[in-house]
Amino acid sequence: MITFCLICFIRRSSLLGTRVALTYSISSQVRSLSTFLEMEGYDRTPFSTLQLESFHRQVTQRLEQEKETVSQVMVRNAHFDV
């Protein structure tokens, strides 16, 4: 019985360590990308699920805006090439 409990504890500790490492990795990536994109509010880690969802939403919106801008520039340039 003690051996089984010890094995469970080791597994749980291992999973917790993996989860903490993953959370740190995601947090550092979010912080780096938010700094690069000059987004405010992402300088303190770790991030909550709500903050990560908000970050994802903001990055997705920014990407769509950038795509639209590139599309408009390409259309304008196409008119000049004619």
Whole-number count of domains = 1
As a percent range, the share of helical residues equals over 70%
Helical stretch tally: 2
Total beta strand runs = 0
Q: What portion of the residues fall into strands of 2 or more residues?
A: under 5%
Radius of gyration, in angstroms, nearest whole number: 22 Å
Q: End-to-end span in angstroms?
A: 82 Å
Q: Mean pLDDT score, rounded?
A: 77
The biggest sheet, with number of strands, parallel, antiparallel or mixed sense and barrel status, is: none
Helix/strand-derived category reads mainly alpha
The poorly predicted ranges are: 1-10
Shape summary? elongated
What is the element string, with H for helices and E for strands?
HH
How would you describe the overall organization of this protein?
- The protein has about 80 residues and is mostly helical.
- It has one domain (about 1-80).
- It is about 85% helix and about 0% strand.
- The chain is built from two helices and no strands.
- It has helices spanning about 1-35, 50-80.
- The longest helix has about 35 residues, at about 1-35.
- It is elongated, with a radius of gyration of 22 Å.
Layout of secondary structure:
Blueprint: H1 2-36, H2 49-81
Descriptive key words:
mainly alpha, single chain, 82 residues
Give a nutshell description of this structure:
The chain has 82 residues and is mainly α. The protein has helices at residues 2-36, 49-81.
